[in-house]
Amino acid sequence: MWIEVGSTNNDPFVIAQYYLDCVRQVGGIPKIIRADCGTENVNVPVLQRFFHNQDQSFLYGKSSSNQRIEAWWGILKRGGMAWWINFFKDLRDSRLYIEDNVIEAECLKFCFMPVIREELHKFAIQWNLHKIRPSRNAESPSGRPDLLYHVPDLTGARDLMMQVSHEDVDMAEQLCGVRSPEHGCSEEFVELASLIMQERGHTMPTSPDNALVLFCSLIDDIADI
């Protein structure tokens, strides 16, 4: 339904905003959401129960029991995220990036987060078009996720989405949602980096190589200020 990149993965207000963005996009909420007891999830059950007006609309479970999502993380890692993990480790080990340097941390997020976000979104599109093989588990229908979701009649499934008004989503957003910065860094750094890029004729990167060039250039220019 969504996959995002941000500067935090444990702020419940940021996670709630991802949930609300998805609700706004599809126009409703699922009958039930299941998640583990992590602190990042505390606002989502509040919102789910607010929209549904019933406690049974959210279930807690051990993370080790969420086999589907845990398996999916492994697929995502093999699908490209392992490359990024090794890339940033090499960047740190070669001292091109010093992780306890605040400026370099801001610069790293500014340069690489848009590239990673675009890659994640492309991965999600590909995943939703792949074919799920038949399973003995009756609750796991086979087929392509996009077709299963948008045309449930193909498998005899029911659409259990509950519609939610934009007014209710707006109210929930004011109480429980905080939007993560697009670049993951402070507005002051974005303004500084944008000024330097304008002077140097740089554009936002679209690949890891472009992002690395921009990162090194910005670090050098900021050091000369």
UniProtKB/TrEMBL annotation:
Residues 7-138 form the Integrase core domain. InterPro entries: Integrase_dom_put. This is Integrase core domain-containing protein. Pfam families: rva_4 (PF24764).
